[in-house]
Structure formats: C-alpha cells, structure tokens
C-alpha cells in the first residue's frame, strides 16, 4: 500500500468555492477497487466491517469507511482512516479481486447550499435530492473526466477523481461554484 502520510496530495493548498459552496480537498484515504461474485458479498462485508451494497446508486458507510456500488460485481471502498483494505478483504476467505487504488485517486468535498448546482455545472446526471438522496453514488463524467460522486448529506458531496485529472476537475468545480453563486445567491441576482 502507498504510504498516504508522506505522499504529496495533488490538491494540497487548493481552496475554492463561493459564498454558497465550499470546495475542500479531502484528507488522504485508502481505497480499493473491489470485484466479487454475489456469493462472496457476505464474507467480504463481514471482513470490511460494513455491508457491501447490492443495488445501483447506493452506498453504505460506517466509522469513516464507505462502500460504493459501481456495478453488479464492483465496488469502490474508501477508508478515511487509511486502513489496509486489501488485507481486510483477503482475511474474508471469499473469492474476490481487490486492487489498491489509493495512489490513483483523490477527492474533493463539495459542500453548502450551492453544492448541487456546482456539480450540475459539469455533470448531466440529475443530482437533485429527490433523484440522488444522501447515500447515493454514481460513476459519471464531470466535464471530460470520469469521477465517482457520493452524496454524503443534503448539502455535501464527495467527488472521487483520478489524481491526473484532479486539477482539471477542481478548476471546473471552482467555476461551477462561481456560477452557482451568481445564479442563486441574493448578491448574485441582477
């Protein structure tokens, strides 16, 4: 596993947002891309300490760990405390494939009353609270970059992105935050 404590974060020192949305680079986290057949879900869930979701657009969270459904046999598992997820999955004894992608991904937290509008500036997917409630997740595009979006609560999203696209996505999010402010805040209305 990559030493997350010493690796330079790609968005270190970046700040963005507006009066109605805040963009914050997420703290380092460990991540695995997990693939497994249906009969392995129980053992993997027990080993990882949270139930792997089995329905599209859903996630589960417990103690700083998130499991995001990406496909019928595919999950992104994120641990905000840096746990050794490959080892935990291996301890299940269940058939699976777990690849450490901690070095590949980073994340941006998008929060505030303008968070949804900020994401809508670069994503055609309906991220409204009715269509995309707290706990919903999806692999989608933001601009021209593949991202995984997780709605943490009514006004907070976690946007997972490959490190190599993080500057691009952060810049688009910053522009989206300005647009959201100009459209929705009292000071921005003309």
What does this structure look like?
- This protein is an alpha+beta fold and 190 residues long.
- It folds into 2 domains: 12-27 and 104-190, Gyrase A, domain 2, CATH 3.30.1360; 30-101, Alpha-Beta Plaits.
- It has helices spanning 41-48, 85-90, 115-120, 166-184, and strands at residues 16-17, 22-25, 30-35, 59-62, 65-71, 74-79, 97-100, 105-111, 137-142, 145-153, 156-162.
- The chain has a 6-stranded antiparallel sheet. A 5-stranded antiparallel sheet has the order 4-5-6-3-7.
- A hairpin with a 2-residue loop joins strand 9 and strand 10 (145-153).
- The longest helix is centred in the C-terminal third of the chain and has 19 residues, at 166-184.
- The N and C termini lie far apart (52 Å).
- The mean pLDDT is 92.
Strand content: 25-35%
Low-confidence parts, pLDDT < 50 over ≥5 residues? none
The CATH class of the largest domain turns out to be Alpha Beta
Total DSSP helices: 4
H and E order: EEEHEEEHEEHEEEH
| Name of the CATH architecture of the largest domain | 2-Layer Sandwich
Oligomeric assembly = single chain
* Mean of residue pLDDT values: 92
**Helix content range:** 10-25%
Which terms would index this structure?
five-stranded antiparallel beta sheet, 21% helix, 33% strand, Alpha-Beta Plaits, Gyrase A, domain 2, alpha+beta, globular, six-stranded antiparallel beta sheet, 2 domains, 190 residues
List the helices and strands and how they pair.
Layout (H helix, E strand, L loop, with lengths): L15 E2 L4 E4 L4 E6 L5 H8 L10 E4 L2 E7 L2 E6 L5 H6 L6 E4 L4 E7 L3 H6 L16 E6 L2 E9 L2 E7 L3 H19 L6
Antiparallel strand pairs: 1-2, 2-8, 3-6, 3-7, 4-5, 5-6, 8-11, 9-10, 10-11
């Amino acid at each position: 596993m990559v030493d997350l404590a010493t690796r330079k974060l790609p968005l270190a020192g970046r700040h963005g947002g507006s009066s109605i949305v805040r963009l914050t680079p997420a703290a380092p986290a460990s991540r695995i891309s997990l693939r497994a057949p249906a009969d392995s879900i129980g053992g993997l869930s027990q080993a990882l300490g949270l139930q792997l979701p089995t329905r599209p657009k859903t996630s589960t969270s417990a103690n700083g760990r998130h499991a995001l459904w990406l496909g019928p046999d595919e999950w992104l598992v994120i641990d905000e405390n840096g746990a050794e997820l490959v080892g935990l999955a291996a301890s299940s004894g269940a058939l699976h494939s777990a690849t450490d992608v901690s070095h590949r991904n980073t994340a941006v937290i998008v929060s505030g009353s303008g968070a949804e509008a900020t994401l809508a500036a670069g994503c055609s997917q309906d991220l409204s609270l009715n269509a995309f409630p707290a706990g919903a997740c999806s692999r989608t595009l933001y601009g021209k970059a593949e991202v995984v979006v997780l709605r943490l609560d009514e006004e907070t999203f976690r946007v997972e992105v490959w490190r190599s696209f993080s500057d691009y996505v952060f810049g688009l999010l910053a522009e989206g935050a300005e647009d959201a402010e100009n459209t929705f805040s009292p000071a921005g209305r003309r």
